[in-house]
């Protein structure tokens, strides 16, 4: 795993920056339900796109991996939506 | 456990097949661990974090979220928002925000307080959440009904919040509410914090009414402010009103200072618990998967476990520390 991170350092930095921006936006707009919906949706989509791109660059993308990232993206969105939609 | 692996194991060690024949339950046990650990034979994740399992978790979360919307229609007042909101704190936080930008403090006015209470009672009675009532009554109508002759007036609404600080912070974060909160044209304010059942959910409504009287001499004195607060303290704790609009109306005749709402099921706690339970469960299994695969040298054809764990940690932190219930209008 560490070898993979070292080898694709830029990809992981992009993921961490994306997540940091995601958290900062959630904090700033924590009282705005519409903004939270958009931020969560875009954040989840970013993660799915990152995952797919990660495997495209390695030429190892399979349908199962696409499903996996899409499902994790949906899970992330739903975990947030359950709380901010109440 | 896959049959091939069973065969291989048995070929490796004939004693294994003998043992399994004698103890068929041990085969089940052997198979059971792959619900939690990655399968070295199939080069897959644990069954409980397979794509199929994640799809089931997503479906369950959707079902629970839908249940939160449906239950109040059949059992009003069961679901609700626990709160502990205080008029004194609302006034202090409001004036604190004004002081930060060099504005004068707002005085608590008894007529604006009564107007706010009437508005809150009206929303519970007619089951609406808006500045303009279904019958067309506007905020100014409630203020004028208390014989408060104003030149400027405004209204902020909030519901489902847990604390006074969160209410004022949410108003402050919203540009339109912030302009009321920091309105230089206002001298006085009135608050209503009332519990009741609105659209099936037990909740606490907060109404904040601003005003500047036509006659400057009518601005509330320190004595009036103290008497309004004192009256509030005398009725400091109000038990939650369950399912009755009449009770909500009756309660609004008080000037509650601290309103404590304790519904049967606290929506905030329930939603956060569900989110954390699913997120924590999947995250823990992924962490076990990463550790076990490394230990046993299992190379799986799956997505990046490390990235999944990181995103789930971000979600858990956000759910626990950042996201709070509450809507302002």
From TrEMBL, chain B:
Residues 91-209 form the SCP domain. The chain crosses the membrane at residues 53-71, 274-293, 305-323. InterPro entries: CAP_dom, CAP_sf. Keywords: Membrane, Transmembrane, Transmembrane helix. Coiled coil: none annotated. This is CAP domain-containing protein. It comes from candidate division WWE3 bacterium.
